[in-house]
């Protein structure tokens, strides 16, 4: 059956199949050699036993992993309420920057200033300024909570990046579609809502997925202002046990979450490229 199938292929197709097979063999061989070199050479280094006890202690990992999972729920909670707010605020900022009405020019200035400021300031600095600055005003509970103001810092920072991604999606919709919709009698608001935005949002879904992955990781920055999420909990265990293995456990949990999301984002990007061909 295989020979009959091969016989039905053109010379070009047989050549491409042979090239793919050759590339797969080379890739597999090189991967095996690199992994074997790491597995063999790293344990031969002088300080490996000390590093293994400090970072890869199985007993410590088993002891701390359940508590790290509990602390990760805080990360998920902060992510869950921050992501929708980021999407909404980012879209509003993108629309403000895209407005063409002279009367709404102040909105364009505000949108530009917003993205320039919060894209220009490092995330950790924004977390510090808002997370320590606003509670310093002496607000009553619960308005002095680091969960609220830390989340606000993430929302403001990520909204600036998300707004630019949305704006690139809006710009990717050809102006002829806007003109055609206007010629049919639609208003500018209807054109934006019914013609431009559906296409723009669909075009930027893969890029926004990558922003969600980054947000999930940056939630750990809030540990610097108080919330006991997974990174802070790992630090507590490190101090109690004098061992860095809890940080490795935290990294494993993040990888369990982010790798499937990353692969899904890659799948969306590949499908989008295929649709454009």
Keyword list:
277 residues, transmembrane helix, mainly alpha, 0% strand, MetI-like fold, amino-acid transport, single chain
| Shape assignment | flat
Radius of gyration: 25 Å
Instruction: Estimate nothing, just give the exact number of structural domains.
Output: 2
At the fourth level of CATH, the homologous superfamily of the largest domain is MetI-like
What profile does the largest beta sheet have? none
Q: Would you tell me the overall average pLDDT?
A: 87
Give the low-pLDDT segments. none
SSE order, one letter for each helix or strand: HHHHHHHHHHHH
The appropriate CATH architecture of the largest domain is Orthogonal Bundle
Number of strands: 0
CATH topology of the largest domain: MetI-like fold
Straight-line distance between termini: 33 Å
Bin the strand percentage: under 5%
Q: Which percent range fits the helix content?
A: over 70%
The CATH class of the largest domain is identified as Mainly Alpha
Total of helices: 12
Structural class: mainly alpha
Family: Belongs to the binding-protein-dependent transport system permease family. HisMQ subfamily.
Organism: Marivita geojedonensis
Protein name: ABC transporter permease
Transmembrane segments: 23-44, 74-96, 117-135, 147-166, 240-261
Description:
The protein is built from twelve helices and no strands. 23% of the residues are buried. It folds into two domains: 2-44; 63-276, MetI-like (MetI-like fold, Orthogonal Bundle). It starts with a helix and ends with a helix. The protein is flat and about 75 Å long. It has 277 residues and is mainly alpha-helical. The model has no long low-confidence stretch (mean pLDDT 87). The protein has helices spanning 2-7, 11-41, 48-55, 58-98, 105-120, 123-133, 146-172, 175-183, 188-203, 205-218, 230-241, 245-276.
């Amino acid at each position: 059956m295989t020979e009959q199938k091969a016989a039905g292929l053109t010379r070009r197709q047989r050549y491409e199949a042979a090239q793919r097979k050759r590339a797969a063999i080379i890739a597999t061989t090189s991967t095996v050699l690199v992994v074997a070199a790491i597995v063999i050479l790293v344990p031969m280094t002088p300080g490996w036993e000390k590093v293994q006890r400090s970072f890869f202690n199985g007993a410590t990992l088993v002891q701390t992993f359940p508590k790290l999972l509990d602390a990760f729920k805080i990360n998920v909670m902060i992510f869950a309420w921050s992501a929708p707010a980021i999407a909404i605020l980012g879209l509003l900022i993108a629309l403000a920057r895209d407005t063409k009405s002279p009367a709404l020019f102040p909105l364009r200035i505000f949108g530009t200033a917003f993205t320039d400021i919060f894209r220009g300031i490092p995330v950790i600095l924004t977390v510090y300024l808002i997370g320590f600055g606003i509670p310093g005003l002496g607000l009553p509970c619960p308005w002095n909570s680091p969960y609220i103001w830390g989340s606000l810092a993430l929302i403001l920072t990520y909204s600036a990046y998300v707004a630019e991604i949305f704006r690139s999606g809006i710009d990717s919709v050809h102006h002829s579609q806007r003109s055609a919709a206007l010629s049919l009698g639609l208003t500018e608001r209807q054109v934006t809502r019914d013609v431009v935005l559906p296409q723009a949002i669909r075009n930027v879904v893969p890029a926004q997925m990558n922003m969600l992955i980054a947000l999930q990781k940056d939630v750990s920055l809030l540990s610097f202002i108080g919330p006991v999420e997974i990174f802070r909990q790992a630090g507590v265990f490190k101090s109690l046990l004098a061992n860095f293995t809890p940080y490795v456990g935290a990294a494993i949990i993040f990888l369990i979450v982010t790798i499937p999301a990353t692969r899904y984002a890659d799948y969306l990007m590949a499908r989008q490229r295929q649709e454009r061909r």
